[in-house]
Amino acid sequence: MATPSRDDVIATLSRLSDPESGRDPVALGWVQGLAVQEGHVTVALEVPPERGAALEPLREAAEKAVHAMPGVLTATVVLTAPRAQGAQPGASGQPRQGTAGRAQSIAPPGVRHIIAVASGKGGVGKSTTAANLAMALVARGKRVGVFDADIYGPSMPRMFGLAGQRPMVADDRILPLDGPGLKVMSIGFMMNEEDPVVWRGPMVMGALEQMLRDVEWGELDVMVVDMPPGTGDTQLTMSQRVPLAGAVIVSTPQDIALLDARKGLNMFRRVDVPVFGIVENMSYYVCPNCGHREEVFAHGGAEAAASEMGCPFLGAIPLDIAIRRNADEGTPIVAAEPDSAHAQAYLAIADAVLAQLEGGSDAAHPAAPTIRFT
Length: 374
Ligand SMILES: Nc1ncnc2c1ncn2[C@@H]1O[C@H](COP(=O)(O)OP(=O)(O)OP(=O)(O)O)[C@@H](O)[C@H]1O
What we know:
Helices cover 32% and strands 21% of the residues. With 374 residues, it is α/β, with parallel strands linked by helices. It has two domains: 6-82, 2-Layer Sandwich (GMP Synthetase, Chain A, domain 3); 105-364, Rossmann fold. The strands form three sheets. Strands 4, 5, 8, 9, 10, 11, 12, 13 and 14 form a nine-stranded mixed β-sheet that branches. Strands 1-2-3 form a three-stranded mixed β-sheet, with helices on both faces. Helix 3 packs across helix 11.
């Protein structure tokens, strides 16, 4: 069945009405984000902040109406509001819990701990680290899910050999795909690699929220979230709305990347998410022929920066073609070469993360934040 067009969705939304004014949400200019991807529809309605809770029935009606359209597999409608001038979402002193109506849905039931793998800038190996950390947690006997939230460059389908696959939908629930011993869900499963989506802020959270809310994750000990790179609004909002137990920050040793890592660390601190530590990726190069170790960049910077910023240093991962090759071939090195020194390095990082997850019970089980208008 053909996927509906954006105009079809707009037409459906225009048949609804705001109970206060009697006008439809399209005429009111509330439709600020709309994505239609192979039957998966995400709509962001930007509404007056003070009416957030009162408009929950309209949100539900919109979701139901869109879902009932022929060709629609899943429908997610979220309410957002323009940020009040000067508002600092999640800045210290403000609670992570908020006021608007449906935040409980953002914490997938059955998932014990959610950890973010983040980086201040792109291309530092965040996704490679996330995939290997997830596999290391599997090796430690944990039930693990990987949630690829890197909407700008989702790479988990490729890293777990699942590129080109689509999730099944059963009873209105999206089933994550089975990777090697873990579950994988990625925005990349919903779009074509050659067909990049230009995301607007509200659409991002809508799509990510759908993956948290409508995916049948089942029981997980740990969900590893591959965050979008950077420290902009998307990352901030996400760190605020997803009940993260903590974050791992990936950096390369170069000064510039470390500066970015500091920004990442500060972002999580702003929203009261504990930082489990920094991983220095592409830290040094070992010649595969002679074993000579070469410090490609000024190695050690991340460790020094971590101690200066008062957060743990989780370990150094070398620049090695085997890490890249295994990731490209769809089996992270922890699974492909479990006895290698590199796999051991990722396992040590996983152990350090587990120690913090299981040690800090309060930090590891933060109250699920309620969605707040930002
Ligand atoms: N330690 C490593 N040794 C060799 N290659 C690596 C290593 N870490 C990552 N790579 C390679 O570097 C490239 C970028 O890695 P990756 O996609 O994990 O980075 P990222 O920070 O998630 O990037 P993006 O910002 O694009 O999402 C990939 O080709 C990956 O295979």
